[in-house]
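HUMAN: Quick job: go over this next protein and say how the chain folds.
***
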Amino acid sequence: MKFIIKRETLLNNIHQLNYTLNINNLYIYNNILLEIKNNILTIINSNQDIEVISKINLLGKNENGRITVSTRNFINIFKNLSKNSEVLVKLNKELIIIKSKFSKFCLSTLPADNFPNIDKWKILTQLEFKLNQCIFKKIIKSTFFSISNNDIRYCLNNIYLEIKKNIIKCTTSDGHRLSIATLYIKEDLPFCSIIIPKKIIFEILKILKEGNLKLQIGKNNIRIYIKNLIFTSKLINGNYPNYKKILNDNEGENFEINSENLKNAIKRVSILSSEKFNIVYLTLNNNKLKIKTHKPPKEEAIEYIKIIYNGPKKKIGINLNYILPILNYLKKKNINILIKNNDNSIQIKYFNKNIKYLYIIMPVII
């Protein structure tokens, strides 16, 4: 194996591979795979859950071959070479030789046949479609904060993606709140539902930028194509809890308010909230929304916001940590808030172009 490449060309492509995922006691998991075939350099980073592939077109004469080398050492060498330098990389018996100007490095290797190849997971494509990267990132970020961190219902620690006809729905919940982003598309797709691991979502958000992506959903995995990058991950086996029955009840008291005004008011009164409970009290009465917090023994903060509301007096308590992330995301939007009659939960709605956002927050018992 032998190839010549510009330092910047390799670094610009390899930074997407996120070599921090190679943390494993098995040496092969601390390596990346380098493969030359038909003047294309393929770099693969993989562990037991994720595989990231970057393909680079090469110029000049190259020698085919494949080998694995230490991820950290290989990248750090390129990072510390002179800018705009040409680099020769070649395999000499069991060593990778890296030469550039007056620098030379020799790295140990491991056989490519031992490298964990995600294609062995047998991706039997059930569904394939294209999607704008920015929109995909938007529906993920609009729900990501509601993922549970350590729920015994393991599925709640991840993201639920549901596809049906012209709808792509992203759902998360931690048992106290529910976040749903519904994207309406022009394409008519067959039904499919998957659970994507939370740690995989972190990696997906890092690679999403601009332009379109191609998304493949297999039996046990998901694969994303972005230009010269291929990202593959395992999925969670299991059934997501049935949350849809709580969406049918829309009886209660409605009002509209600017999300930024509500957020700023809540943040101001939260200065005097109890650190133990983090509760904010909302009272609807006579075209006013009263926002109140208190801290024992006698400290309290109150703020009023004018709204259009002529219904009965209504008072609820909610956790500050549940509502503020929602308001932070819905910046300066006029949102609809419904306080349900049956359980006093808050339902927040906002619709923008082809995405509908819906959030439900369960109340704190007053």
Notes: The longest helix spans residues 259-269. The mean pLDDT is 90.
